[in-house]
Amino acid sequence: MSANDTFILEHVPAELHPIAHKVARGERITAEEGIKLFELGEVAFLGQLADFIRTQRHGDTTYFNKNFHVEPTNLCVFDCKFCAYSRLLREKGDLQAWEMSAEDIIETVKSYDKAEVTEVHIVGGVHPKMGLHYFADLIRSIKAERPDIHVKAFTAVELEYMCRKAKLSYKEGLEVLKAAGQDSLPGGGAEIFHDEIRDQICKDKCSADQWLEIHETAHELGMPSNATMLYGHIEAYKHRIHHMEALRNLQDKTNKFNAFIPLKYRSGNNQMSDVGEVSVIEDIKMYAVARIFMDNFPHIKAYWPMIGRDTAQLLLKFGVNDIDGTIDDTTKIYSMAGAEEQSPKMSTYDIVKLIKSVGKRPVERDSVYNELKDYSDVEFEEAPTVKSYN
């Protein structure tokens, strides 16, 4: 199959034609070609390529899950310049600072006893009093309450600190958490891997090499994970491609990443607010290039509480095949930074309607992408007026 038979290349710069031919043949593009896509690719052209790949792999299927978040604290030992969420330990008295007890967390989990959720997502600030064994005990208590729930927990940033404080290797620390019941890792804390940028925005947190090592170790232990990238701040296109190539290389080795999730920098209430935010056009380019470049990642996710539900819906035409889950207003990470979704929650009805309205097939999944229910032919009698996962 040739690109000329598959894509409309009229008015597309000649330098991009070989990339289109590669995509049509299912071949990997290089880092240099990835940068060219960012620099020269118009949205319509990128959309052709990204949607072609999405359709080849997933047809019209769009995944979501039924989940909620637990954020134990936003007190943190690190000082990331882009973060509006965390508070330094000396700011413990700040009205926007919180520190949940283990009892508080278990009560939150219990509040979902009658809800058909399949996943609890646990991330938060890095607190010196909430260490590895504290969280292992917490996971055991969660599993005792909900044995069937998938526990996706702790960014590599949290894990690096936990293991260092416990004087354990990454393997030993992850083995403790796995034995307690942790099932997988989220993808947070990756930010941008390139030292030139990382040193400016989050110098004191775990390094890129440490992030990659922790995820590789988790994969070796049979714990899958996701991967993220924070884009739209002071980075250049070359830094985005450098980041994605490092992830692509690790995926070649382990094949245990489930999804790649570009995360848009939000400028509200942080130390980098003067930088501003990129446009929706730039968002579209980011997701489309990710789908094209990240050829060994099965899923590209638009995390709707961060990007907004309208943009997430739009991105279903630009390579995205997952929009995360119901959330139920249990995360503050992006709402505190000024994201459109100030109270992020959607019922199953909301998500299904969002997906169907752009001609896609809504499928509920579990945390590792086993299909649980196809909502294509499900008709809701009316929009729920109360919290509903049904």
Features:
12 strands; 13% strand; 390 residues; 3-stranded parallel sheet; alpha/beta; 4-stranded mixed sheet; single chain; TIM Barrel; disordered C terminus
Written description of the protein model:
The structure is a single chain. By secondary structure, the protein is an alpha/beta fold. The protein is globular. The chain has a four-stranded mixed beta sheet. A three-stranded parallel beta sheet has the order 2-5-6, with helices on one face. The protein has two domains: 3-58, no CATH class; 62-374, Aldolase class I (TIM Barrel). It has helices at residues 3-6, 17-25, 31-40, 43-58, 102-110, 132-145, 156-166, 170-180, 195-201, 208-220, 237-254, 280-293, 304-307, 309-315, 348-356; strands at 61-65, 67-70, 75-76, 87-88, 119-122, 150-153, 225-231, 257-264, 299-300, 322-325, 361-365, 371-374. The longest helix has 18 residues, at 237-254.
What is the β-strand count?
12
Name the beta content range: 5-15%
Classify the secondary structure makeup into a structural class: alpha/beta
| Strand arrangement in the largest pleated sheet | 10-1-11-12
In summary, what is this structure?
The chain has 390 residues and is an alpha/beta fold. It has helices spanning 3-6, 17-25, 31-40, 43-58, 102-110, 132-145, 156-166, 170-180, 195-201, 208-220, 237-254, 280-293, 304-307, 309-315, 348-356, and strands at 61-65, 67-70, 75-76, 87-88, 119-122, 150-153, 225-231, 257-264, 299-300, 322-325, 361-365, 371-374. The model is unreliable at 331-339 and 385-390 (pLDDT under 50).
